[in-house]
Write a structure and sequence with these properties.
With 356 residues, the protein is of the alpha/beta class. It has 8 helices and 22 strands.
C-alpha cells in the first residue's frame, strides 16, 4: 500500500497507542546511528518551518510535510511538532523535540553561549530530540561566511541530536545545483555520524531576488534528491516568502504539485531512505548517486542528474549482486553485470533502482 510518509505512520501510531498516552506525554523519539526513530519506527521525515496558522499546517500536511519545526507555535494534535528549546515545559503526543534558535552563527550566538543558555544535551533520555539549523556559510564562495570558523559549524551541530542547514542556490543566483550535494557532503564531514538534513528552497524568497526567477518543479526535485544522495536523513521545504509581508506558506501550484509528488515517492521509499549506507559511484560527475540497504533486505540506489545535459552513465555498486534491478515507478528494468548497470538521465532527472 502506498502511504504518504510520516503522516501515515502517525495515523497508525495513533490508532495503536498514542490515544492511550497520558496527558503531557510525548512522541517517543530517538536516534540510531544516522536515522531518526519515532515510536520505535525508523523514519525519513519531511519538515516544514514555522507554520503557525492552522490553514498553513493543513496545506503542508496535504502535500506530505509531516514534521513541523516551530519557533513560536503551540503543538498541534494533528501534526508531529518540534518546539523552541526555550519552551521545554510543553508536552503532547505530537511533540518530537526542541529546536535551538535558527542560524545561531548569524544571530549573535556562539556554541558556548548557546549551550549555557539552553543546557539541554543530545541523547537526552526523555524521549525527545533536539534540532538545530545553521546557514550554509561552511560552503565555498559565494556561500562562505568568513566571520564563522568551520569548527563553529561543527560545534553548533554537536549541541543537537539532528542538525541541518540552508543553502538555497537559486536564491544566491547560482544555477549549479550540484552545490546542494556538495554542501550536504561537507556538512556531514563537519558533523560526523548523526542525522542531518537540508532545507530546500521552493521559489524566490523575495520577488526581486536574482531578477525574480521562477523555480521549476524539476529544479525542486533535483535539489531534494541531491541532498538525499549527499547523505541527508530528512528533508525540509522552506515555504516562506516576503512580498514584503511574510507569508509562511507561499508556493506556486506547480511547485506544490511537485512537493506532493516528491513526498509520495519518499513515503514509498522509506525502507531504503532509512537503510544503511552502501558504496556506490558513477562514471560521470553530473550524476550523484547513493545506495542503501533497507531493513526489508532490498538494495536501493538513488541517482540524480545535477546538470541540464542528457547524460548516459555507468553506475557501480559493489553490493549489487542481482542480475537485474527494477527502476522504481517507471515500469522498466535494467540488466546488471559485474555490479554495474547503465542508464540515461535527462535534465535534472531522478531515477531510483531497487534490487531484491
Amino acid at each position: 500500500m502506498l502511504v504518504r510518509g510520516l503522516a501515515a505512520v502517525a495515523l497508525v501510531a495513533t490508532a495503536a497507542c498514542w490515544c492511550a498516552l497520558p496527558a503531557g506525554a510525548t512522541a517517543d523519539a530517538f536516534v540510531v546511528r544516522e536515522t531518526i526513530h519515532v515510536h520505535a519506527r525508523p523514519i525519513f521525515p519531511v519538515l516544514g518551518l514555522d507554520l503557525c496558522a492552522a490553514a498553513d499546517r493543513a496545506k503542508a500536511s496535504a502535500l506530505g510535510i509531516d514534521l513541523i519545526i516551530d519557533e513560536s507555535c503551540a503543538p498541534s494534535p494533528d501534526n508531529l511538532t518540534v518546539l523552541p528549546i526555550a519552551k521545554r515545559t510543553a508536552g503532547g503526543p505530537g511533540l518530537v523535540g526542541w529546536t535551538f534558535p535558527d542560524e545561531p552563527e548569524n544571530n549573535g550566538w556562539t556554541p558556548a553561549s548557546l549551550a549555557r543558555t539552553f543546557p539541554y544535551r543530545r541523547s537526552s533520555p526523555d524521549g525527545l530530540l533536539s534540532f538545530i539549523t545553521t546557514g550554509g556559510g561552511f560552503v565555498p564562495a559565494p556561500y562562505r561566511s568568513r566571520s564563522t570558523p568551520l569548527s563553529e559549524y561543527a560545534a553548533f551541530a554537536h549541541l543537537a541530536d539532528v542538525a541541518g542547514f540552508d543553502l538555497y542556490p537559486l536564491n544566491h543566483c547560482q544555477q549549479d545545483l550540484s552545490a546542494v550535494y556538495d554542501a550536504q557532503q561537507r556538512f556531514i564531514k563537519l558533523t560526523g555520524p548523526m542525522p542531518t538534513f537540508q532545507w530546500i528552497e521552493t521559489g524566490p524568497l523575495r520577488p526581486t531576488y536574482c531578477g525574480g526567477f521562477a523555480m521549476t518543479p524539476a529544479q525542486l526535485s533535483a535539489e531534494v534528491w541531491l541532498a538525499i544522495t549527499g547523505g541527508a536523513r530528512a528533508i525540509g521545504f522552506f515555504t516562506a516568502t516576503w512580498t514584503p509581508d511574510e507569508h509562511a506558506f507561499d508556493v506556486t501550484p506547480s511547485i506544490a504539485h511537485q512537493i506532493a509528488r516528491t513526498t509520495s515517492l519518499i513515503a514509498a521509499l522509506q525502507p531504503g531512505l532509512t537503510g544503511a549506507a552502501m558504496l556506490a559511484s558513477a562514471n560521470s560527475p553530473a550524476i550523484k548517486i547513493a545506495a542503501r540497504r533497507g531493513a526489508d533486505g532490498k538494495l536501493y540506489v538513488f541517482a540524480v542528474n545535477a546538470s541540464t545535459n542528457v547524460v548516459k552513465v555507468q553506475a557501480y555498486v559493489p553490493s549489487l549482486d542481482a542480475s537485474s534491478m527494477r527502476v522504481f515507478g517507471e515500469k522498466r528494468s535494467l540488466a546488471v553485470g559485474n555490479h554495474r548497470f547503465v542508464d540515461t538521465f535527462t535534465k535534472y532527472a531522478v531515477h531510483v533502482y531497487v534490487a531484491g
